[in-house]
Predict the structure.
Amino acid sequence: MSNEKESTKIRNFIRIGVFTTLWIVVSWIFACTMAFIPAVLLVLPCILAVAGGAILEVMQSKLTIKGGIAIASFLFGICLVTMMPKGMMFFCTFGSGILGSIIYDTLGKKSDVAKAIGVTLPMLGLALGEYIPFCFMKDAFYLQYADRSTGGVGESVINMMSNPLALILGAITVVLGILGYFWGRKIAAKRK
């Protein structure tokens, strides 16, 4: 019995690793192919919310342990730690992943709305990790990207960004994350 529990636990961690890798690769492909256009970089978290929401929901449908969203968000956030000043993308993605995991694992047992919120929170965290520096940490951003080839793109985004726009894009990210959740649920139902 103990070996069976250990085997199940190991399978769960492997699944988390595989789905997190998929989330990272899909995000990387989108970011590397489209993020050199300032307007696209501005909406990139919205775009990534659809794929990320679907991936996390399919992952959650395969797990028998709690905390999958938090672990995946931590691993995803580690990849983003140097993207924005002060590790803002890591902290926002991981912090919201913890909240999402708690909501999904507790309230999500009885509510699809809670599951959708749990999956969407890391997507919102990713968006906040991008928009907070663009709105409130402009000087730190300029310093971090002064010698990089992508500094001009970031500067263009900062010039386009405003607090109301960040709120609107954050709301769009939430809506698209929820759509991603429903897409993931549909995929998971076909795989059962």
Remarks:
- Helices lie at 2-34, 38-62, 68-79, 88-106, 112-136, 138-145, 151-160, 163-191.
